[in-house]
Amino acid sequence: MWSFISKRKKKDKLESLNVMSIQKSTKVDEIEKISNTLKEVLCQTSNEIVFLCVGSDRSTGDSLGPMVGTMLKEKNIPFPVYGTLEQPVHALNIKKVIKEIHKTYKEPYIFGIDACLGDEGKIGSVFIKEGAFIPGNAVNNILPSVGNYHLKAIVNYLDPLSPVQSLNSTRLYTVKVLAEIVTEIITRAAFDDGNVNNNQVT
């Protein structure tokens, strides 16, 4: 009973620290706060940590994932990264990529990164959540759920009548800024050797 309450309080603490918005602030302390949350998340496992950046470079709004993947590769973070502008992970190949990840790494801890749509007032929000995410859910192109934890960024408002148009009409500037912030968050967590597993890319 008490153990359950303790775990619940810890999870509540993580949940309360895991949201930021570029509309409110992009100060270093805001980025550091969510990066510290990510460190705690990554420290929960001793398994190989894999970053899976989902999206397509053929849609502006959906390009967040591969843009982040490219930036993480350029930063040489010490974790495997799947999904870049050169080799995106999208609806047509995600099942194959997931199978490849599980074949390459024993019980991988998959951290997903994806763009999403939401309320207009929340555009620019970045949040981390526990559990799997479902790529393509907003545009009714439901794909296999994947991941142990995931980070999402709201790139545009959700038009329930035309969600695909919402993604395609997203400003590239918004996606670029969000990708840079997400990359900074992950890079800070990844290179903090005292807090995160030093898993190396194989």
Characterize the structure shown.
The longest helix is centred in the last third of the chain and has 19 residues, at 172-190. It contains 6 helices and 6 strands. The chain has a single domain, classed as Rossmann fold (3-Layer(aba) Sandwich), CATH 3.40.50.1450. It has 202 residues and is of the alpha/beta class. Strands 1-5-6-4-2-3 form a 6-stranded mixed β-sheet. Helix 3 links the parallel strand 2 (49-53) and strand 3. Helices cover 39% and strands 17% of the residues.
Shape category? globular
Within CATH, the superfamily carries the name: HybD-like
Q: Helicity range of the residues?
A: 25-40%
Question: N-to-C terminal Cα separation, in Å?
Answer: 41 Å
